[in-house]
Amino acid sequence: MFIEDVVDDFELTLLLLKRAGLHFEATRAETENEIMEAFSTQDFDLILSDNELPKINALNALKLIREIDEEVPFIILSGSIGEEYAASLMRLGANDYILKTNLSRLVPAINREIKEYTLKKKQKSFGKELVLSELRFQNLTKSISDIFFAVDYDLRITFWNKIAEKEFNKNVSLGTHIYSLFPEWVDEDISKAIKKAIKSTEAHPFKLKCVIEGKVEFFEGTVSSSSDGASVLLRKVTETYLNRKKLEKLNNELEVLLYRISHDLKGPVSSVIGLLNIMKMAPDFDKIHFIEMMTQRMNHLEKTLRVLRNVANIKYGKFEKDEINIREAILNLIEIISINDMKDIVHVDFKSDENASYKGDLMLFNCIFQNLLENAIKYGADEEGIVHIQIKSSCTDSDIEITISDRGRGIPEQIRDDIFQMFFRGDEKSDGSGMGLYIVKHALEKIGGKIELDTEYKLGTKFKVTIPSNHKVLVGLEILKEEGANASRAKNR
Asked: Is the pLDDT of residue 479 over 50?
């Protein structure tokens, strides 16, 4: 823009600039309104202004321009101007002043000012983009709900978001090496993924297992290259991972269960069908003998169905919250198992808190302790064929602890880790289903309890059952002895 009221001076100046090789478009203005209108429709890289015009002077034009644009070069081009006045204009923001009688300075001054102005615009634009980029980065990292951190080419932390701080429980200083935070990551997939990302432009997925405060956590994420290293985005998938593992285990167990149950059902059914066919073909058959044989097969079938029903109830059933008196419930089980009818060879020493009780499902409770009692009777005979079972229950405000022990041969050390597995039998000669302890363990897991084999117990086998109790338990110690008979001697567990 050239602020000039004399048209001839305007055109002579343009001619001079074109002859000097400058390429430009020029607008002439001589009033405040014309200046404002010109700035409203276009941008300018340079302002040339005469000192004195009929309707505006250089000082007022400078003030007006600086209100619009603080950076655009402003050069005074005047026929006459005092040096002191020109210096005051320079202090107010003018870039230079040139006399019309010395136009040889004009082109160099224009080139200089436009070069500096262009550089300033680039720096300003770059700085603005840098600020905007930083703001976008900050907003992005704040909006990320997953773990996010960045490392440089030397694997030192350059960014660590709040989620990372919370999940890893580490307040990290920038510049910290990733391996000083997580030495175990040296051989993990995340380390390999970071190194690959730094060398390429692709995102690399990985899986991570990390111990945090003594607990194993599982993560999945991706690593992407960045301008100064790599960015890591992580999501904790521990619950999903464990649920997937549980589902895989459940499916495997279901397949095994269906196979074994079908096998166990097929045997007695085939036997009964065979016996019935023999009875048809032999009119003089021994009815009593055949009935006893079929009864044995049907008892085996009933036992298999009971195991199947227990497994189904534990895994898929709905559970009630009954008020269970521990002493009464175990005495009822002793009655059901008919231990009182086996008093010659089965002796039970039952020590119980008389009024101890908790709220839980009676079916699950019976399932747990009936299996343990039956196992103790079956496998707990001493060398003389006598079964000694001791049951103790004790209670606190938080837990109920019940131990069941016998004086049998015990469980060999080499199979102790397998006894709670589905269909595990400690001896090939055992006629058990291999499901008893499996059912006990899973029933306890349903109510938040647990079962442990006492490996220090040397007299036979001792199991400790712990069940959480959610209310205060009344305590009154009573010793009850129940003795029974008619249990066969068990040689192997």
From this structure: no
126 pLDDT band, cuts 50/70/90, is: low
pTM value? 0.41
Cα torsion 231, 237, 241, 242: sign:
positive
Neighbours of 145 (CB within 10 A): 9
Nearest CA to 422 out of 433, 412, 414 is that of 433
CA angle 10, 16, 20 (to 5 degrees): 145
Question: Quick check: 174 and 159 in contact, CB under 8 A?
Answer: yes
At 180 the three-state DSSP class reads: helix
Tokens of 160: 């660590």
Cβ within 8 Å of residue 331, ≥6 positions away: 350, 480, 482
DSSP H helices in 317-379: 326-336, 362-379
The CB-side HSE value for 279 (13 A sphere, CA atoms) comes to 14
Is the pLDDT confidence value at 371 over 80? Answer: yes
Provide the residue type at 302 as one letter. E
Distance CA(26)–CA(165), nearest Å, equals 59
Alpha-carbon distance of 345 to 341, in angstroms, equals: 10
Q: State the Cα–Cα distance between residues 71 and 68, nearest whole angstrom.
A: 9
pLDDT tens digit sequence for 4-14 = 888 888 888 89
